[in-house]
Design brief:
By secondary structure, the protein is of the alpha+beta class. The chain has two helices and nine strands, in the order ββαββββαβββ.
């Protein structure tokens, strides 16, 4: 029957095959989010928002939470993206802002993120670009920091 369909029947295996354990170190997949930056990004937030920041950055935006080094002084939240880290220093009193530049983030699918934001009741504004595919979502994180999110699957 197999020959009629253009397939070749295989001979039965002479011995059971068992693969050896792979001793190479496992490389974890990077998170599916990127920072649009040339180095690690730094934000400052007031104390008491750690849980909301975890839900926002790790839950909605898919950053990976890292533990800070034990030698560092102060309390810091670290979120790893594919290319850099977002370092958030938690302060008792927030510092005055020197500028109002948003944190720029790129995700694989802007529409999927917009759906997740709507399900989580997070307010955002969609900014349409002049060219197709250059849309951004503008929103604020739980600490009030401005975040702009684009899609990195788009190439021009």
């Amino acid at each position: 029957m197999a020959e009629r369909l253009g397939q070749i029947e295989l001979d039965p295996a002479s011995a059971a095959f068992e693969a050896d354990q792979d001793r190479r170190p496992r490389i974890e997949e990077p998170p599916p989010v990127r920072l649009v930056s040339i180095e690690d990004c730094q934000l400052w937030v007031p104390a008491g928002l750690e849980r909301q920041l975890d839900e926002f950055y790790a839950g909605l935006l898919n950053f990976e939470r890292e533990d800070p080094d034990r030698d560092e002084v102060g309390h810091e939240l670290i979120y790893r993206a594919e290319n850099f880290r977002l370092r958030i220093e938690v302060l008792e009193r927030p510092l005055p802002r020197e500028d109002f530049r948003p944190l720029a983030v790129a995700v694989p699918s802007l529409n999927d993120l917009a759906r997740r934001l709507a399900e989580a009741s997070v307010e955002y504004e969609r900014q349409r670009g002049l060219l197709p595919g250059l849309d951004n979502l503008i929103l604020y994180d739980p600490a009030g920091n401005s975040v702009t999110i684009g899609e990195y699957g788009i190439t021009i």
